[in-house]
Request: fold
Amino acid sequence: MHRNWLTEDHNIHIPNLMEHWGYKCITEKRTHLIYKGAGSYFVIIHTADGFLYYKVQRPQEKLSASNLIIEHVSKIEGVDKELVWGKVDRYYSEVLEAKGLMTNSSSFDGLEKVGTEFNHFLSYSSPFRDNPEELYTGVATSTPFAERVFQGKDDQPLFPLFNIQNEVCGYFTDTTKTVLPYEESAIKHSLWYSNIPKSIEGLFLFKDPKEALAFHTKFQLKNVVYLALGDINSQTTDILFQIQRLTKVDKLHLSFTGDKKIEGYLRDLHFISYIQGFDFKLSLTDRDMLLRFPVGEEKSFSKFYDHTKRFNQELAKSFLKYNKIIDQNMVNKYSVLVSKDGENIKVRLPLETNAIKLVVWSYYKNYLNKTIEILKPTTDNWYSEWATTKNQIKKGKEVHLKEYRIAL
Reply:
């Protein structure tokens, strides 16, 4: 009988095959192995169907040796004009004949059998118990954060990350110094979100869950969902917009921050470039950014242009406070240069805080005002805002969100 992909997958020793390719085993547990290679993390398990694996961004998708071989050979040059299936068949036959790449009775020693629903990320966390930092007081029983914050093996807070199929594919971890992705978490393919209330009045987007927790501690909003993107790209924003469609919330409250204010504004622009339907393109050089987006309504463009024109005029006046003669080349270097290119606007934006803030504010006011509201803390980020104001007496004055809308 011809030995082919469909009949022999369960007999291929996937860990040995990965070793054969030079992939490195970075984790050995009784239930799974984790290999790193070809720019990906692979989790190998032993099941009733032999060895299977999954990539960390899709724990719900268990794959066999055929999938692994197809992905591998698709990147290898074939013989003459050999197409992908010819390459797969030839390489698969070589694997079946190779010494040490097939399973035997001792192959599974030390690796416990698991079901195909297995997800190793679920073993990383335990219920949230306690944390000495005041910010985490009561978080385990709070309405938005119950079961959205867990405890790691070193007692650090872990915030679960969900992929587009709503499977846990990693965690944010609070290291006290900063919030980072935990271990091999698929940060580029997932986001964190708080519990979803029955009635939803707003979506609030942050750079990490600790920022969301500090924001909530300060404002105590009800009937909202907090979300956090560790990486801004097409995959994470697709999940975000899917949540927005499901919740039927029209306006998104954007509140990206960083260690410095400029980091928040840069994240704003990066995120805007992924908003569906706005065709906002961004490219970065070593000294400036180039933006390109549709002109839209003439009124919107006129106001945007007027804002940048006034900014440039103020910049030139400010230069003359310190110099008798204006150096136009130097002023232009830090000016916002706007031009029309057919139906599009081209903007050359210097990497300078005031200029970036101006463009974010003006684009938001004139193009996004109905779909996005941008909120910023008075300090660099919401955690420092909370830490600075947590002991202040409010003197009966309620903290209003409108006081934190981006403004010039």
